[in-house]
Design a protein that fits this description.
By secondary structure, this protein is an all-alpha fold. The protein has a domain of 133 residues: Lysozyme (Orthogonal Bundle). It contains eleven helices and no strands. The longest helix has 40 residues.
Length: 270
Amino acid sequence: MVIKNVFACFKKAALFLGFALIFSLAAVSSNAQQATVPGAPAGAKTDATSDLKTSLNSLSTLYQKEVQRLEKQQQQAKELFNQGLISRLDFEKTDKELADARAKVDHVTNEIAVANQPAIALAPIVGQLTALGNVVWSTGNGRIDGLIRHYGSQYGVDPFLIYCTMSQESKFSAGATSYKGAQGLMQLMPDTAARYGVSNPYDAAQSIMGGTRYLKDLLKMFNGRVDLALAGYNAGEGAVMKYGYTVPPYDETRNYVKLILARYGKKKTT
């Protein structure tokens, strides 16, 4: 019995470690294929994969343009700092913004490489994990996973949707700050954080609580439409209403929605 228990523990540990290495591949390739309407023709899976790659490439272009803009801004800030016209704090802020933008480019480049991997090679791995009763997602941090499930259950939001949103928003970095001022795991803007009682957006529990409540309200506002809720999360609910309750015609927002839906695997038709 002892040997059997030890073997079981070892098996679970091995699966957990292996899972951390293959998840990013599984999440993109497997869910990209699933993001089709039930009953759609077989070619729809290929279209979904093609849409994913197109969105990733478009997002990469946007991120690269942002890096170029920030490089010019950083160079100007360096000159102003050397002339004593701005503080070191302001100069270091431009450095951080540039570093964050470059990290986004690197991340989407990796996602493009993953999307180009043959999906068939992932099927046996994902199948084994599912057959063994494991949930095919993890942030790599047990506490954060637990908080996602806790607040998802408390507010009636699918934990996997919270996970997919967090992945796109911050890549699971609790200290993430965007050049627009969004903060923490769920990248809450200061006004949104205040609306949901988040006093410290870099605190994992507060960020996940606030982001989950925001998703809940957006889903309710848009009658359960996941695509519109995500568009509202990215561009603001006002933008969705302004454009007649459709995804706003912003490249970043449209790609953001497509990428999350591809992972989430429950694409809504419009």
